[in-house]
Amino acid sequence: MKNKKLLSVIAALAVLVIGYLGITGLTGQDGEQTASEKSETVAIGVLQFVTHESLDEIYRGIEAGLAEGGYAKDSNLTINFMNAEADQNQIQKMSEKLVADKNAALIGIATPAAQGLANATKDIPVIMGAVTDPVGANLVSDLKNPGGNITGVSDATPVADTVELIQEISPDVKTIGALYSSSEDNSLSQVEAFTEAAEKAGYTVVPYAVPSTNEIAATVNAMLPKVDAVWTPTDNTIASAFPTVVSAAKEAKKPIYTSVETMVEQGGIASVTLSQYDLGVATGKMAAAILDGADPATTPVEIFSEGTIVVNKKVAEELGLTIPDSLLEKAATVID
């Protein structure tokens, strides 16, 4: 009798083990399906504001993040990618096209692109890729509880850390010109945050807003004689015409402090930056979660705020400035 009971227990355990192995075989070791196991192909739409190295890096990261979440282009995912090239009319047309094509989810890279998608649909999930001020841009009502069909990733520029860089690298600076685009909502919030941090440190900050790339050269030429240094936020308009800013600042012997690593490489002197690729990965992983059924209304916006130091030693030498050894040791990237 005891042997029969023992055999019954062993049989029951065997059934449970086989059942468990069957489930994990279908879903993967951690219970999540891999790209090869999610056999049904889904389509998503991606709208990028403009061609620029930093935004291109975000898109590259998005693909990687989607793949990590089980959605890969070569197996079960179709990405309908569009680039508006900073044309507001194209943003509207492309947003409407991506909605009409009935994509399962939409990703907007940069604030104007996310806004275009948000205006085009209230039903299809929209995931923001690197939007600095989602609330100020009227994309979500609350970061923790977005409350609609939109959520995503925010790149909160570490402006206070950049102020410390200015103090260490160019101690004679007193007045800083903040160059930004008046057409990008996220830029104004960054300027306000930078101004607050810089004024606490004793600097005078003078804002210089441009409505488009056409006015950048004239604005920079008017600004440089009145300031000791230039600061730029994460701003797509400024980024697309940054060589113009660099050329004028170099001639005037004025340092440029930026918010993006690629802009330091192009001629800025230093920055505390966020990895655009990592921002993209986080955006892609969030998009995968939405495709798996997560509700954008209750999915908190993910905030990136811890940056790394990037310095351009070559530019500093050209301007007659010395980057302290202690700062060079802390820097994640030093451009010689």
Q: Would you write up a description of this structure?
A:
With 336 residues, the protein is α/β, with parallel strands linked by helices. It has two domains: 42-156 and 276-304, Response regulator (Rossmann fold, 3-Layer(aba) Sandwich), CATH 3.40.50.2300; 159-273 and 308-335, Response regulator (Rossmann fold, 3-Layer(aba) Sandwich). It has 13 helices and 13 strands. It has helices at 2-27, 53-68, 88-100, 111-120, 159-169, 185-200, 216-223, 236-240, 242-252, 261-265, 276-291, 313-318, 325-330, and strands spanning 42-48, 77-83, 105-109, 126-129, 150-155, 175-181, 204-210, 229-231, 256-258, 270-273, 302-304, 308-312, 333-335. The chain has a seven-stranded mixed beta sheet, with helices on both faces. Helix 2 (53-68) links the parallel strand 1 (42-48) and strand 2 (77-83). It is elongated. Residues 1-32 have low confidence and may be disordered.
